[in-house]
Amino acid sequence: MIALMGIQESARPKAPQEGRKAAYFARNEAALLKATQEVLAEVGWSAKIADVSKAADVAASTIYMHFDNKDALFEAAVVAGMQEWESWALAQLEGVSDPFESLVAPMRIFVRIGETHELFGRIVAKNLSHLSERLPLIATGLLAHVRELAAAGFLNVDYVEKRVSNLSAVLVNTLQRQLTIADLKVADADLAIRIALPMIGISETEAARLIALPLTLNKPVEKVE
Length: 225
Fold this sequence. Notes:
The structure is a single chain. The protein is built from twelve helices and no strands. With 225 residues, the chain is mainly alpha-helical. α9 (138-151) crosses α10 and α10 runs antiparallel to α11.
């Protein structure tokens, strides 16, 4: 499933203090990550700790209580955005039983990040060069899903890993175009997916049916810190 993007855990913040200060520490950290996301969306990876300090209205020393350096902070902010999107995306798939729809619907959700998660979409658009290696990690979950369908007899294709790699590249490129080209419509993204689906053994007729299915997405709930 494409919602499982292979998120790395290398950008973990420092461990919170024990006892009654732990909740306070966690709240401060969440607010700091939110401020960092805003900075990444506006300034990009060239931003400095001072920019985050100003946006979060905290001293730089407070930031270093949570993260060792700027890269660790920025990575953690991106991972937090990915995790928030993934949790929401998985919830949209509840009740989907069609084996092909369960494969394709996450792709359609993925290319809509700019619409469903505006801040995270801005982060991706502003930092494409830094995130170009992370976005293709969607292939990790997608490959497992395609293999499951092949093992169950729903798909009959060779060179599965290569086919999934090619499809993942289409999805990443489609997302990037949706985020950076103002006059593109979401129908353009769906069309790109429809054209690419035969690469993994889905017929053109079935691809057209899957893309024509209604995609009802619940609005993400804003977190209150």
